Structure formats: structure tokens, C-alpha cells
């Protein structure tokens, strides 16, 4: 949600890929891809954003904390980031999502968005459940 120099962004992508591979993820068994190359993420985020209440996003603690660190000038990208996260989850019809305690409210937003979408249109998205780690 913060502007990055293109060279730094490219290096971050390579570093993240290296970390994933170093953790033992086998690309022969898993499909690795760069999310930014899949336009459906942004397209679904737009659709879900049109169904999401702004007041709900403004109440999320991460918005308040990060906005404060940006001298009260939070961006639209920062505000709508949880909707993009919901799109990332729902696009693949995920049923279970590993999250840390700090992301539980964002997953709850994804659950609410899925339920709202399903009620308004038809049963389409599974309502994802959290997998919380002991660590």
C-alpha cells in the first residue's frame, strides 16, 4: 500500500520467491505464480468493493494503526486492502485460510463479504474458516 521503487519491488518479488522455495515448497508439486499477473484478483476486488461498507473498513484496527503511522493521510489502497485480501481468498474458493491473530478481522470481513454475495446473488463462494497457528 506504500509506493515502492520499481527496482526494490522487483527485488522483493525475487526475495519472497527465494524464501518460499527455501521453506521447502516444491514447484513440481505446487503452482507458484505472481499474483499481480492475474487480473482477476483486481477485478474481483472491484466487484467486492462495490458490496463492502466503507464504515466497516474504517473500523478495522489495521487501518487505524497504519493511518496513524502515515500522519493521518491513509490512502484508498490502504483502506481497501482488506477487500483485496478477501478477493485473494474468495477467487480460489478457499475453504480454510491460515492466518495470524492480527489477520482474523480481515478474514471475518472476507467471510461477511462471501455471505453477503451469496445471499444477494446465489451460493457461489464458500465461507472460509480460519486456521490459527499455536505459534
UniProtKB/TrEMBL annotation:
The keyword Repressor does not apply. One of its GO terms (molecular function) is ATP binding. GO terms for biological process: mitochondrial tryptophanyl-tRNA aminoacylation. Gene3D superfamilies: HUPs. GO terms for cellular component: mitochondrial matrix. Its EC number is 6.1.1.2. Keywords: Aminoacyl-tRNA synthetase, ATP-binding, Ligase, Nucleotide-binding, Protein biosynthesis. The keyword Glycoprotein does not apply. Belongs to the class-I aminoacyl-tRNA synthetase family. This is tryptophan--tRNA ligase. The gene is Wars2.
Amino acid at each position: 500500500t506504500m509506493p515502492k521503487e520499481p527496482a526494490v519491488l522487483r527485488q522483493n518479488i525475487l526475495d519472497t520467491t527465494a524464501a518460499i522455495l527455501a521453506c521447502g515448497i516444491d514447484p513440481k508439486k505446487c503452482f507458484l505464480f505472481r499474483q499481480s499477473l492475474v487480473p482477476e484478483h483486481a477485478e474481483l476486488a472491484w466487484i467486492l468493493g462495490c458490496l463492502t461498507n466503507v464504515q466497516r473498513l474504517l473500523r478495522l484496527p489495521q487501518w487505524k494503526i497504519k493511518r496513524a503511522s502515515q500522519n493521518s493521510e491513509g490512502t484508498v489502497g490502504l483502506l481497501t486492502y482488506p477487500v483485496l485480501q478477501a478477493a485473494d481468498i474468495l477467487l480460489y474458493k478457499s475453504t480454510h485460510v491460515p492466518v495470524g491473530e492480527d489477520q482474523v478481522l480481515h478474514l471475518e470481513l472476507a467471510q461477511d463479504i462471501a455471505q453477503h454475495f451469496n445471499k444477494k446473488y446465489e451460493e457461489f463462494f464458500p465461507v472460509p474458516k480460519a486456521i490459527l497457528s499455536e505459534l
